[in-house]
Amino acid sequence: MRTFVTVVEAGTIASAAKKLLRTPSAISKQLKRLEDELRVTLLHRSTRQLRLTDDGRRFHAHALRLVSGFDDAKAELLHRHTTLSGSLRISAPLSFGQEMVATWVAQFSRHAPEVHVDLNLSDRWVDLTTEPFDVAIRIAPRLPSSGHTAQKLGTMRWHFVASPSYLSQRGTPSVPRDLSDHACLELAHALDRGKWRVAGQRPVAVRGPLVSNGIVALHRAALAGAGIAQLPAYLVSEDVRARRLVRVLPRHEGTPRQVFALFQDGQRAPHRVRAFVDFLRTHAPRDF
After folding, report:
1. How many CB atoms lie within 10 A of CB 62?
2. Does the N-terminal or the C-terminal CB of the chain have fewer CB atoms within 10 Å?
3. How far apart are CA 198 and CA 194, in angstroms?
């Protein structure tokens, strides 16, 4: 249809071929296929000129509107995919979202003020295929295959910490196996629940007075002196500096997790999605 419109505008098949960067024979074959499909003659051809038939004039009017409408729709989509505007829905874990992602979103908003961000914080893993999210921040030792595009942002370090009051009452572990003799505060959905994995060591069987599905709850319990908790470095670094918490077994860490930004369609994702993920790659620390 675009070829037909171009031929009418150019006046000759040779001129249309130059404009479309095609050969005249290819243009002629395409016009014949169109006429065969429509079962009408659109153009009377001669060696020097082309003349529209009555059917050709009618079809040209419709074709012109359709081609123009397609070009407008394409331009609108290209504009949406190449400008930083529109809505951006992000899913992130509750604690990590509050402590880290919210700051990145604020920084990104200054960079892209026309993008409206909806930040949803929940420890539930959302399904990007069926739920209306553009980007999901995931924290895991590794990501299962999902068919989505994953960009690694960094590594989350896990420290063993306790309050000074707890350690003064129960003593301080000197080696990883000593954790078995202490009150350990556990994350309910952790892969190593009941057996803490210490990097480079055998798993250590642990038990304690509290299991919770919320990292913030374990953090508060550790501050209150309830026991030893395995918590991400980003959450406890200020408390360690202020001596509200003490790193236990400072030469050892829990199993590190990787932080990923997950999104759909790779390079075909809207510009705002790719821009946000690129922004995270630039601004997020390599270790959390």
Report:
1. 10
2. N
3. 13
Nearest residue to 187 (alpha-carbon basis) of 92, 93, 287, 288: 93
Identify the residue whose tokens are 């790659």.
281
For the record, the structure tokens of 266 come out as 């790779």
- Which distant-in-sequence residues (6+ apart) come within 8 Å of 9 by Cβ? 16
Residue partners of 27: CB distance under 8 A and separation at least 6: 3, 7, 13, 16, 17, 20
Would you call 101 exposed, middle or buried from its count of C-beta atoms within 10 A (0-12, 13-18, 19+)? buried
Candidates 137, 134, 112; CA nearest to 124 is: 137
The position carrying tokens 């829905």 is 89
Distances from the Cα of 200 to the Cα of 197, 228, 255, angstroms = 9, 20, 9
Letter string b/e over residues 161-171, b meaning 16 or more CB atoms within 10 A of that residue's CB: bbbeebbeeee
Element (H, E) at 119: strand 115-121
Residues 204-263 have pLDDT tens digits of 999 999 999 889 999 999 999 999 999 999 999 999 999 999 999 999 999 889 999 999
Q: Per the structure block, which two tokens stand in for 184?
A: 């350990």
Q: Give the H or E element holding residue 91.
A: strand 86-92
Residue 194 backbone phi and psi in degrees, to 5 = 85, -25
